[in-house]
């Protein structure tokens, strides 16, 4: 499973648009994909036509990374093809979990969750909120996403994705 985090220090630069573009390309290539919507605005969730009326969301997953909670927070997107495109539903409550001094346990929670799902997805795309809403430096969910991306072996790469219709 490959994990990609779309992050930026600034808001309004198209992080969600990039995440959804990557998701579209993955769907066209037949990759089973999970989009994790860490942004409290939840635009990736709505952009993928996923219901956010779940009993759990990414906020509950990060509070209690148990498989039952994870399963409740993941829904099928409205994007369909031969592969699956799922969303770990975003929530405004995820903003409450950003901590300027996260513990080691907090930083690794998302990786624990994704390890539970490793056999189900070829690709995980993490849409993050912008860093300027937080204290200076990578904290909370951003640190989690950064830690995940740092753990990908540098010798692995995704297969090239060609534009549709070619």
Strand content: 5-15%
Q: What is the second-level CATH architecture?
A: 3-Layer(aba) Sandwich
**Shape by Cα distribution:** globular
Q: Return the average pLDDT rounded to an integer.
A: 79
For CATH, the homologous superfamily is named as P-loop containing nucleotide triphosphate hydrolases
CATH top level class name: Alpha Beta
Mind summarizing the main beta sheet?
5 strands, mixed
Q: How many alpha or pi helices?
A: 6
Series of H and E elements? EHEHHHEEHEH
Residues in helix, %: 25-40%
Count of discrete structural domains: 1
In whole angstroms, how far apart are the ends?
A: 26 Å
Radius of gyration: 15 Å
Indicate the structural class. Answer: alpha/beta
Low-confidence stretches: 133-157
């Amino acid at each position: 499973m490959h994990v990609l985090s779309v992050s930026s220090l600034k808001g309004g630069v198209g992080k969600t648009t990039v995440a959804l573009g990557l998701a579209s390309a993955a769907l066209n290539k037949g990759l089973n994909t999970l989009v994790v919507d860490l942004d409290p605005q939840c635009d990736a969730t709505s952009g993928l036509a996923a219901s956010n009326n779940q009993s759990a969301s990414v906020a509950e997953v990060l509070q209690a990374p148990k498989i039952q909670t994870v399963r409740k927070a993941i829904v099928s997107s409205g994007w369909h093809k031969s592969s699956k495109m799922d969303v770990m539903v975003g929530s405004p409550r995820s903003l409450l979990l950003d901590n300027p001094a996260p513990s080691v346990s907090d930083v690794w929670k998302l990786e624990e969750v994704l390890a539970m799902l490793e056999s189900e997805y070829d690709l995980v795309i993490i849409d993050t909120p912008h860093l300027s809403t937080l204290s200076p430096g990578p904290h909370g969910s951003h640190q989690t996403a950064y830690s995940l991306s740092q753990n990908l072996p540098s010798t692995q790469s995704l297969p090239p994705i060609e534009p549709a219709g070619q």
